[in-house]
Amino acid sequence: MPAPPEGRAVKRHLAEGQVLFHEGDHAHFIYEILSGVLRLTRYTEAGRRQVIAFGYPGDMVGFPDHGRHRAECDVVAPADVVVHRTGAFDNPAMDLALHGRLVSAALAEISCMQDHFVMLGRKSAIEKTAAFLAALLPRVGVGSPSGPVISLPMSRADIADFLGLTTETVCRSFSRLRALGVIQLRGAQTVVVRDPGRLLELAESD
């Protein structure tokens, strides 16, 4: 992907499967997501993958840690992003609106990390799966006569690696939520939340 000119942010379209950066790369850019979904992953020394976050519109990804990226980032669903040079955020004359978005995105990332830790601590697989869907509901849920609709462009394996479960367990959890009347499945990538209240109860179970 071509680098933006010095001092300028540019809009780019990213294709599904495109890799923005690898773990350990020097962090030259931060990506502000306008549309689509990105995936952040890390790998253990044994080669096991852990999905640590999904990036949605309004998020920024690529915040450096001592100048380097601490995760790999690729595109799950075709995305439009604004590419900012990391050095632009050190400029005291930075646009105030951009500064506000940067601070909001950084705080949101911290909050999402905390929510993820709590999610991983859920006692049962169905509670973890419910918490995953409940977290997406206010962000990407679209109203419909049947209930809020959530698009899930990521695979069940992605969700499993995010929740610390097996793919088979995630599939069973979705089936269980459907049997309880909490959700309706329209193919693998569309979930209709038929009972948001019950979903939140399961998500908040201790």
UniProtKB/TrEMBL annotation:
GO terms for cellular component: cytosol. Gene3D superfamilies: Jelly Rolls, Winged helix-like DNA-binding domain superfamily/Winged helix DNA-binding domain. Signal peptide: none annotated. CDD domains: CAP_ED, HTH_CRP. Residues 12-62 form the Cyclic nucleotide-binding domain. It comes from the Bacteria. InterPro entries: cNMP-bd_dom, cNMP-bd_dom_sf, Env_Response_Regulators, HTH_CRP, RmlC-like_jellyroll, WH-like_DNA-bd_sf, WH_DNA-bd_sf. Keywords: DNA-binding, Transcription, Transcription regulation. Residues 123-197 form the HTH crp-type domain. GO terms for molecular function: DNA binding; DNA-binding transcription factor activity. This is Helix-turn-helix domain-containing protein. It comes from Halovulum dunhuangense.
